[in-house]
Amino acid sequence: MSKESTESAEACQESKAKQCHDCLGVVFATLLLRLWLGVRALQTGIEKFAGKVMSEQAVQIDGEAYDADLTEVASTKGYALDNYHGIPESMKDTFAGEPLMMGWALKVYDFVLGPALLILGITILLGIGSRVSLFLLGLLYVSLTWGLILIKQDSGVAWLGIHVIMIAMALNWSKHNRLCILKKW
User: What predicted TM-score, i.e. pTM, was given to this entire model?
Assistant: First the structure.
């Protein structure tokens, strides 16, 4: 083997080692993006089932009721199917008052939003059709952005814009996506 071919082979190995080193960083970045986006969607979907449970108890001093008529109200957060609200109650009237907001779309969103976020969060976390799941989550965020633009919630629009940029980054790096159950889509 000549000296030139040996040097060429060493240069090739160094190049491959450098590519592998760079590739590992992109793999970790892709995994972190996928985890963040999946957890964000999953927890947002779970929060659609959150509600408050109010309780009224007698005020106690030294472990005994001070006065049966003197009570305190406490609330605790709980999750149940009965608490489900796709669109928060406080925003329903605002959306309904918008002339460009279609009434049927509000009903669809109110029914579908929570389950859609749960399903997309799980599929992104597990890597089931990651690219399709990320694309659908991006479309969902774009549609939510449209609604927030209508009611002039500029901070929410900015946050969703950041989410869409993160999804675009994850899609751009999808060839480096690892730990997937179904990688094809």
Answer: 0.76
